[in-house]
Structures are given as structure tokens and as C-alpha cells.
Design goal:
The chain has 84 residues and is mainly beta. The protein has a single domain, classed as 2-Layer Sandwich (Arylsulfatase, C-terminal domain), CATH 3.30.1120.110. Strands 1-2-3 form a 3-stranded antiparallel beta sheet, with no helix packed on it.
Length: 84
């Protein structure tokens, strides 16, 4: 966690697999309550570790958008592969 985003990675060190993103939530996006009355809304980010939505499956770091990888690289350059 930092002031720009929350990032959580999961890695199987026993099998030395690449890290997978299990949580990525940006803090720079505007948040607003829904216009209609509902209890089914949240401020979850791209991927959330609670896995309460279909898109919350862990993914390789390189599969995030270029913009999301740039945001991560602004704080943690060593995590992002810029080969693409």
C-alpha cells in the first residue's frame, strides 16, 4: 500500500511461479455513490483479494493494462516488465 494504490501479489515460491496480482486498487479515481437506491455497490478496484466478483481472479502482472503497469512502475520499477 502507498498513497497512490494498493497492490497485493501472490507467488508460489516452492514451484517458483511468476507473481500474480490478487489485489489492485487505485486511489486516484473518483468515487461516487450510485444514483439509484441499492445496497450492491462498492469501491473495489480492478482486482480485489476478496474475490467477490467474477473479474477478481488472480492474473499475471503483465496482463494489467499499460496504464496500470505504469502506475505500479512509478513506485516499484523492479516489478514491471517493459518488454512489450
Amino acid at each position: 500500500m502507498n498513497k497512490d494504490f494498493r497492490l497485493a501479489l501472490l507467488k508460489d515460491r516452492k514451484n517458483n511461479t511468476p507473481e500474480k496480482v490478487i489485489d489492485f486498487t487505485r486511489y486516484d479515481l473518483l468515487a461516487a455513490e450510485p444514483k439509484e437506491m441499492t445496497r450492491k455497490w462498492s469501491l473495489l478496484g480492478t482486482i480485489n483479494q476478496k474475490q467477490s466478483r467474477p473479474q477478481d481472479k488472480s492474473v499475471p502482472l503483465d496482463s494489467l493494462s499499460a496504464k496500470e503497469r505504469a502506475i505500479i512502475a512509478s513506485r516499484y520499477k523492479y516489478l514491471v516488465n517493459w518488454a512489450d
